[in-house]
Design brief:
- The complex is a heterodimer of chains A (about 110) and B (about 160).
- In chain A, about 80% of the residues lie in helices and about 0% in strands.
- Chain A is built from 4 helices and no strands.
- Chain A is elongated, with a radius of gyration of 18 Å.
- Chain B has 2 domains: about 50 residues, no CATH class; about 100 residues, no CATH class.
- Helix content of chain B is about 60%, strand content about 10%.
- In chain B, helix 1 runs antiparallel to helix 2 and helix 5 packs antiparallel against helix 7.
- The chains are: A mainly alpha (about 110), B mainly alpha (about 160).
- Chains A and B meet through helix 1, helix 2 and helix 3 of A and helix 4, helix 5 and strand 2 of B.
């Protein structure tokens, strides 16, 4: 087990952790808008760490170039689609959940 | 017309590089998809003079490290809140000013907001962006205006 393998596995496991936390957030958070924040963890740090882990596995090759490009396009398209979702919900008049009964919960 | 030609050739070169297969079927499929993209881009009017913002893309790599760091910090914060038994969140909606002059600048700013966990841009008007934030902390970190300033700084590179 060389040092690249080690870095690769740390990144992969970190990515898995953030994808998992993103899914937990998707289930635990109260409404449509706040659930998007959970999903964006999966899109950003979760995906990025998985891809960095895979780059360390691939080494300096064309595969790594492709992985970089996939990550680049992912970081470009995922906020665009998230914005499209949020905007259509907002335009349709969906009201965000706001914590008014602060004292009840704490 | 020259723009379209350059775009088509560049797309096909990239397609060849990434495909790595040189059979007649795949080569023609690649040519068809590149041609489709050029036609679509032409119809969308991407090459109209007022929408030329290529100069914005040059200083963009200088902005990425800062953005990635902001995303990293925000991820840790949101992950901690999601796993916290009490779920300490306080969602709110507010407007921030987008001081970018060009369309692409505002797109970069709105997408950066959405990309950072804890804030999602809900609506983009001429110079304001409606933002949904998960916590007061993520709202206030956006309201400092540092991200807005950094994206606007990308635009100013052209004048200097």
């Amino acid at each position: 087990m060389n040092v690249f393998d080690l870095i690769s596995w740390v990144c992969l496991l970190g990515g898995v952790f953030f994808c998992f936390v993103g899914s937990v957030g998707l289930l635990r958070l109260p409404d449509f808008y706040s659930r998007m924040h959970g999903a964006s963890m999966t899109d950003t740090l979760g995906a990025a760490l998985v891809f960095i882990g895979l780059m360390f596995q691939a080494g300096l090759s064309l595969v790594t170039v492709k992985l970089v490009m996939i990550l680049f396009f992912l970081l470009l398209t995922s906020p665009t689609s998230t914005h499209a979702l949020a905007k259509s919900a907002f335009d349709a008049g969906l009201k965000p959940w706001v914590k008014k009964q602060k004292d009840v919960i704490q | 017309m020259l723009n379209n030609l350059i775009l088509g050739v560049a797309l096909y070169a990239i397609w060849l590089l990434w495909s790595g297969h040189y059979s007649l079927l795949l080569l023609s499929l690649g040519a068809i998809s590149c041609l489709t993209v050029v036609v679509l881009v032409r119809r969308m009017g991407v090459f109209e003079p007022e929408r030329q913002h290529v100069h914005l893309l040059l200083p963009l790599p200088l902005y990425w490290p800062w953005l990635l760091w902001a995303i990293f910090v925000a991820n840790l914060d949101i992950a901690w809140r999601v796993l916290h038994p009490k779920l300490p969140i306080a969602p709110c909606v507010f407007k921030v000013k987008a001081s970018q002059k060009s369309e692409l600048g505002r797109v970069i700013y709105a997408n950066s907001i959405t990309l950072t966990p804890g804030t999602v841009s809900m609506d983009v008007e001429s110079d304001t962006i409606t933002v949904h934030a998960l916590t007061e902390k993520s709202a206030s970190s956006l309201q400092t205006g540092e991200m807005d300033r950094r994206v606007t700084a990308l635009e100013l590179e052209r004048e200097s």
